[in-house]
Amino acid sequence: MDTQTLVETLGLEQLEVNLFRGTTPDKEQRQRIYGGQVIAQSLLAAYETVEGRICHSLHCYFIRPGDPTVPIIFEVDRARDGGSFTTRRVVAIQHGQQIFNLAASFQTEEQGFEHQADMPAAPSPDEVEDDAVVRRRLNPNPPPQDVDWIDRVQPIEMRTVGGRFDTASPEPRDPHQQVWFRARHPIGDDPHMHQVILAYASDMSLLGTAIRPHGVSWRTPGFQSASLDHAMWFHRPTDFNEWHLYVQESPSASGGRGFNLGYIYRASDGVLVASCAQEGLMRMRKPKA
Q1: How do the pLDDT tens digits run along the chain, 289 residues long?
Q2: Which of 24, 32, 36, 188 sits at a 20 to 30 Å CA gap from 68?
Q3: Residues tagged active-site
Q4: Are 211 and 282 in contact (CB under 8 A)?
Q5: Which domain CATH number covers 240?
Q6: CA-to-CA distance for 205 and 161, rounded, in angstroms?
Q7: Cβ atoms of 89 and 79 closer than 8 Å
C-alpha cells in the first residue's frame, strides 16, 4: 500500500454500462477482504452511474467472506432517478455468488434546517500515540503470520485515545472509545472520493467497541468477529486528509452480536460530518473435541 495510494487501490474498471471490476492489492491479501474496501468500492461503483448528486446515506450487508485473490464484480441497479433523490443498489459478486450488497441514496444540494450534537472533549491528535507504534510495542515478538500486518504502513492513520488493546487477554474497558483518523495520502479535490475513503475507514475499530467490556481482542484464541451490516449517513462535505474524531459507543451486545454507533467530527471546527451504525459477529468458538 505504500507504493499505491488508496485512491488508486480502490479504482474500478468499467466492464459494461452498469458493471465494474475491482481488485484487492497483493499486500492487503489476507484470509478475507477488509469490509471497508467493499463498502468503498460499491459506493464508488454507484457514483459511476450518478451525476450531480451527493450520497447522503448507505446501508449494506456482508453476506460472505470476500476472496482477496480474485477480482470483485460490482453490478449496479439504477433503482430510481427522481427529482431530488437518486437510489442505487450494488451487488458485489465473486465465484458466482453475492458476497455483499449495498443500497445508497443520493441527493441534489439543498439548504434547510440545521443543528448537530457538539463534539465531545478529547485530547488533540498530537497528544495521542499513533496506533502503529502501539501495535509494535504490544507485539515485540509476533508470530510469522502477524509480522506483515504489524509492519505494514496502513492507508488510514489512526490514533486511539487511551491506546489500543491488541493483546490476547486485555483488561475489560467501557464500551466507548475515541479514535482520531485521517487518510495518509492526498485524496484530491473530488468530494465524492473523500466520501468513499471516509466510508472505507468507517469500518475500522467500530466493532471493537462492543468487544471492549469482555476482556477479549482479535488476538484472543478462539475469538471470532466479523462485520454483519453497516449503515452510514453523510451530513456534510469534508476533507478527509484532515484529522477527524471518530466517537464510538456500543449500547448492546447479545445473541453473539455486538451493536455499535459511531459519530465522525471534523477536528478543525467540531462539525459532525457523518454517523455510522454497525452490528457485528462476536463469539468464542468452542474448542474441537
Answers
A1: 444 689 999 999 999 999 999 998 765 556 789 999 999 999 999 999 999 999 999 999 999 999 999 999 999 999 999 999 999 999 999 999 999 999 999 999 999 999 999 999 999 999 999 988 888 787 777 666 666 666 677 899 999 999 877 777 788 999 999 999 999 999 999 999 999 999 999 999 999 999 999 988 887 888 999 999 999 999 999 999 999 999 999 999 999 999 999 999 999 999 999 999 999 999 998 766 5
A2: 188
A3: 203, 227, 278
A4: yes
A5: 3.10.129.10
A6: 12
A7: yes
Per the structure, the complete domain to which residue 142 belongs is given by 125-289
Same domain for 279 and 137: yes
Whether residues 33 and 174 fall in one domain: no
Residues 84 and 154 in one domain: no
Beta bridge partners of 182: 157
Q: Taking the mean position of all CA atoms in its chain, how far away is CA 48?
A: 20
Sheet hosting strand 19-22, strand order edge to edge:
13-16, 19-22, 72-81, 85-94, 97-107, 54-62, 223-234, 272-284, 257-266, 244-254, 176-183, 156-160
Beta bridge partners of 97: 94
- Verify that 97 and 138 share a domain, yes or no: no
Alpha helices in 30-155 (DSSP H): 35-47, 131-138, 144-151
- Among 183, 185, 128, which residue's Cα sits nearest to residue 159? 128
The number of folded domains in the chain is 2
